TrEMBL record:
Its main location: cytoplasm. One of its GO terms (cellular component) is sulfurtransferase complex. The gene is tusD. The lineage of its organism: Bacteria, Pseudomonadati, Pseudomonadota, Gammaproteobacteria, Enterobacterales. GO terms for molecular function: sulfur carrier activity; sulfurtransferase activity. This is Sulfurtransferase complex subunit TusD. The keyword Transport does not apply. It comes from Buchnera aphidicola (Aphis gossypii).
Length: 126
């Protein structure tokens, strides 16, 4: 089956994003197709490279990056939601020399989410 995962919870403070990550790993282990993960609302905070994880906790941001690197899962971030929450690309705000969007995530719009839903058998929201 083909899946798209929609993450609306922040990286830390709720279980949404960590549960979504574990679900994505399970899909891959069970040989399903994970088309993409779309981060929306507070979920865009998963793409903030500045997040600092304590050494005794699982680094969820790094987990998403490894999912991208090892399994070529597309990680899309809603542009509007990201801007509202201060997650920006390089030079997208005049006073920033470097943005805080992790290079493994791509800014996109709801059109990309619509396309992902169209080509998927299931969409799961966390």
């Amino acid at each position: 089956m083909n899946y798209t995962v929609l993450v609306t919870g922040a990286a830390y403070g709720t279980q949404n994003a960590s549960t979504a990550f574990l679900f994505c790993e399970s899909l891959i282990k069970m040989h399903h197709v994970l088309n993409s993960v779309f981060f929306y609302f507070d979920g865009v905070l998963n793409a903030n490279i500045i997040n600092k994880t304590p050494t005794d906790e699982f680094n969820l941001i790094q987990g998403w990056q490894e999912l991208y690197e090892k399994h070529d899962v597309k990680l899309y971030v809603c542009t509007t939601a990201a801007e509202r929450r201060g997650v920006v690309e390089d030079n997208s705000i005049a006073n920033f020399k470097k943005g805080n969007l992790s290079p493994f995530f791509r800014l996109s719009g709801l059109l990309e989410l619509g396309h992902a839903i169209y080509i998927s058998d299931r969409i799961i929201q966390f």
